[in-house]
From TrEMBL, chains A, B:
InterPro entries: Annexin, Annexin_repeat, Annexin_repeat_CS, Annexin_sf. Pfam families: Annexin. The keyword Plastid does not apply. Signal peptide: none annotated. The keyword Acetylation applies. Belongs to the annexin family. Belongs to the annexin (TC 1.A.31.1) family. Keywords: Acetylation, Annexin, Calcium, Calcium/phospholipid-binding, Repeat. It comes from Brassica rapa subsp. trilocularis. A pair of annexin repeats may form one binding site for calcium and phospholipid. This is Annexin. It comes from the Eukaryota.
Length: 306, 306
């Protein structure tokens, strides 16, 4: 369930564009107005605002937001304003273009591949080709070391059957195969990859039910995340938010990603899981950790009335 | 280039539906009328006819064609009338449901994966899920032995960048990697698969230019076909037609597949290649090998005026 709150009466895209344009004009920028407009519109509404803004003012709203705003607030608003498929393509591209492709960064590709719908993942791959002149899987295969590349390509190219059906017998057999691969420490075995990469989410949940969970450290950590993302995406995102604010300093990029990418998907559930897992509220944790317009924007996406 | 000839003035879908319905009525069926209508309409026109037929007569045109016609003629007309993505999904499903999945049959999946556009291949995978309640790659991984399954999954899940750009340096490096894998007889090496499965067609053509060509027998034969399909799809289809009519007896299913699936794509080129490769015309070869309505239908798709 989504957390954003769209008002009962939504202004036309042209009116919203005008409000935004007013907010950009003169000395200083009216950040509150930007939060009020963009933070309370769903994906298709934002898309129409971006189109309408271009029509009226001849500029890409993303470019204007980038130049008028700054810091983590700017990054969050821009990420939110992208079309979701373009957004994920850009998130993946940042990882693959990064000099240091740590396992933590690579997990963003697992996240995109395993917590979104099959049709969304295809849309991400299409966006990737048009934005970056190569395919997502080509970029992974040519820039990530094996066997991690193998796992990531398998997941990123999946188009899982997405109806709620599972074959218990198959689940038992495949749980056995997974267990065997774990015991033999052959986590990159082709059978493991094809089970995790081609079976439907529902079939896999049945398989994971049969079995416990897995046991090279990077590969293990990646596969554990695959399983978590598939089995409990909302727990995964509760963890993303928690990890980003826990301890000394904040990982704003991860926090933004967690909130922005799920605000229209299942952030309500992730918020519930957060409470169950950490015995404190996600909203309060965010309030205690970040500040200013950035904080207000994230809370708006979480459904608060700022 | 396509071979089918759409008349300058095309009747409305409702008129075509009526002509077809007339052809089905009474004793006997008017096969010539069916050829004249369906054999001279392109994909979107046939789609509209099928929709209109359902609206007017409350029946799926495919079902009526299946019951009114018979033999290879029926199979060819039905295959032609399907939406191209549904058609390829059904062709692949026939292979994967077959008890004996010979390497010749499995090559149909290579053909679908390597000779069609990235967007078409995605449409085939979507059609596969909605028609058969599992994903194409899931069906491959669970029913074809390794390492063939590995190659087929990699190809079937590809979404290649499809602009005409190639990096010569990458081509040289990857041609070297392919050569090495061939020498070491490690054709199922992950690097081979990711080169063949993720690089764009244009990049791969550059790579094959640098290198010669490859040399377990089934795997070799499959990969040679991958290369042929990618480098010269029209030569591949000339060969499909030739192999289907050569020697004793005809392989009507392959002949139908070769003509029907390419009549709107590149059959004109394949016909030219056929002449270059075998020093005889494809049309005459077909005329000499098959007969009746089936022959007339294939020739209509080849652009003849029957």
């Amino acid at each position: 369930m989504a957390t954003i709150r769209v008002p009962d009466e939504v202004p036309s895209p042209a009116q919203d564009s005008e409000t935004l344009n007013q907010a950009f004009r003169g000395w200083g920028t009216d950040e509150k107005a930007i939060i009020r407009v963009l933070g309370k519109r769903n994906g298709s509404q934002r898309k129409r605002i971006r189109e309408s803004y271009r029509e009226i003012y001849g500029k890409d709203l993303i470019d204007v937001l980038t130049s008028e705003l700054s810091g983590d607030f700017m990054k969050a608003v821009v990420l939110w304003t992208y079309d979701p498929a373009e957004r994920d393509a850009r998130l993946a591209n940042n990882v693959l273009n990064g000099k240091k492709k740590s396992i933590e960064k690579l997990k963003i590709i697992v996240e995109i591949s395993c917590t979104t719908s099959p049709n969304h993942l295809i849309a991400v791959r299409k966006a990737y080709c048009s934005l970056f002149d190569l395919s997502l899987e080509e970029h992974i295969a040519s820039s990530v070391p094996f066997p991690l590349a193998k796992v990531l390509v398998t997941l990123a190219t999946s188009f899982r059957y997405d109806k709620d059906m599972a074959d218990t017998e198959v689940a038992t057999i495949e749980a056995g195969m997974l267990r065997e691969a774990i015991t033999a420490k052959q986590l990159d075995h082709d059978h493991v990859l094809y089970i995790l990469g081609t079976r439907s989410i529902y079939q896999l949940r049945e398989t994971f039910d049969v079995d416990g969970c897995p046991g090279d450290a990077d590969l293990k950590s990646l596969l554990q995340m695959v399983i978590l993302c598939i089995e409990f995406p909302e727990k995964h995102f509760a963890k993303v938010v928690r990890d980003s604010i826990e301890g000394f300093g904040t990982d704003e990029d991860s926090l933004t990603r967690g909130i922005v990418t799920r605000a229209e998907v299942d952030l309500m559930k992730a918020r519930g899981e957060y409470y169950n897992m950490y015995n404190t509220s996600m909203d309060n944790a965010i309030i205690g950790d970040v500040s200013g317009d950035y904080k207000d924007f994230l809370l708006t996406l979480l459904g608060s009335n700022i």
